Amino acid sequence: MVTPCRDCPLRKLSLFAPMSDREVDFMQDFKTGELKVDPGTTLMLEGSNSPQLYTVLDGMGLRYKTLLSGKRQVLNIVLPGDFVGLQAGVMKEMQHSVEATTAMTLCVFDRKSLWALFRDQPERAYDLTWIAAIEEHFLGETLALLGHMSGIERIARAFVRLHDRGVALGLVAGADMPLPYRQQDLADALGLSLVHTNKTLKHLRETGVVSWVHGTLRVLDYDRLCEIAALDEASPLVTRPLI
Amino acid sequence: MVTPCRDCPLRKLSLFAPMSDREVDFMQDFKTGELKVDPGTTLMLEGSNSPQLYTVLDGMGLRYKTLLSGKRQVLNIVLPGDFVGLQAGVMKEMQHSVEATTAMTLCVFDRKSLWALFRDQPERAYDLTWIAAIEEHFLGETLALLGHMSGIERIARAFVRLHDRGVALGLVAGADMPLPYRQQDLADALGLSLVHTNKTLKHLRETGVVSWVHGTLRVLDYDRLCEIAALDEASPLVTRPLI
DNA sequence: CGATCGCTTGAGCTATCTCAACCGGCGTGG
DNA sequence: CCACGCCGGTTGAGATAGCTCAAGCGATCG
């Protein structure tokens, strides 16, 4: 007896297309259960063919690629509301790995039902495509970040974006939000060395812009941070359907 | 009287789901015409809301973002078979621009029909999502490239990938394939300065690995190129449906 | 108590950047 | 038909952001 989850993005996304009873029935079939995992668990492995897709209900994770050299490129941070495994659902295998950083609660879907979803639930299928387009947009932003910005700009922008997402998700209390990653994770996401990341963080901390210690991000001067990140107010974060 | 185009990826993609008569009828409605544009034409403008979506039948283009600093991040090269404007179709506006480098022939679709496609043609909708997932995969690869590879590795890998795509598209004659871009375009794609790109190209040319002059890419030593690109044979390019 | 992990800091090195000049080809206008 | 200007490519030289190596420190854990 599986209940459809209230917070699944497939349900939340279509602001202008609420679920009918029939849809709720369908989503009940589509959903196969809920999953709780411990920190460090690998949810998806690059090259594997996961039979399941997930929606993050709670917790934080990391999406990354492992290079032949053994280095790691973090693609992005996985927060509640994110969809995990679209590639596995649509392609033959995953092209990146996903790992739980904290304990996570996931809504589990059966990959095999995906085609049925396209057939019977065009609105949800549309949502999925929308998710993929957003994902593409974010990767494009990150690409521009790595391609053209200095170390301090990359870090500042990463913090602005994370803070914005945190606000949208209600994770921010005062100026603080939990960000339980290692400096190495940030370095791998931004294409910087650990040492340089560390020194840049120190600089930002000592100039009173942001501090990130003990897994807590504290934004002390948001405007200044945006300035360093070369962001003006005209570039808001996309967090909800734009359609 | 518009004829559905034989080479549209929406048709080609579903290798295992050929079109029925009814589907052909539908695609005929969906398609609104063909478009020929001159080199330099901007097909999509960042921030705009294009009423049309395209499929590339012929010619080459460039997908890029413009940063606040005025710099440009090339996201990827647009080749025949690519779909252009999914973001505009699904989101409120484009997050990047698309420009024709050579003359291009495009298959034009009406954005407003997109929802009807999801409703009536789940197989094509599935194809669209597949396209988006592939796109995401490529951006992830590029991210890893910019994040963790040296200048010469980036250039070598870009050439390998382009060559592979060229082979898949039948653009390669002997060792040559047309690549009518400027060094500045490559530099903007790889996050390198023009000067450094130029010097690295010279080095690759003089060591007899690849030459790229007069808009022609000539791969002289593919194995060596792959080696420099830190690619082994186990990382083939994804050019067709993996499902 | 020793080992491991994440963070910190110093020092030297270099890949890459910026600035700047020059060159050849091509299109345009006189 | 010539001259000029522009564009893309090429090359040199000096500056530096960021890298690597290496060592040390505190906390946590078995």
Strand content of chain A: 15-25%
CATH C-level class of the largest domain in chain A: Mainly Beta
Distance between the termini of chain A: 34 Å
Sheet with most strands: strand arrangement of chain A: 1-8-3-6
Q: List the uncertain runs of chain A.
A: 13-17
Biggest beta-sheet profile of chain A: 4 strands, antiparallel
Number of strands of chain A: 11
Helical content of chain A stands at: 40-55%
CATH topology of the largest domain in chain A: Jelly Rolls
Structural class of chain A: alpha+beta
What would CATH call the architecture of the largest domain in chain A?
Sandwich
Rg estimate of chain A, integer Å: 19 Å
Overall, the morphology of chain A is globular
- Rounded average pLDDT of chain A: 85
* Greatest interface (CB-CB under 8 A), with counts per chain: A-B, 51 and 51 residues
Mind telling me the CATH superfamily name of the largest domain in chain A?
Answer: Jelly Rolls
Q: Indicate the multimeric state.
A: homodimer
Q: Strand-and-helix sequence of chain A, N→C?
A: HHEEEEEEHEEHHHEHHEEH
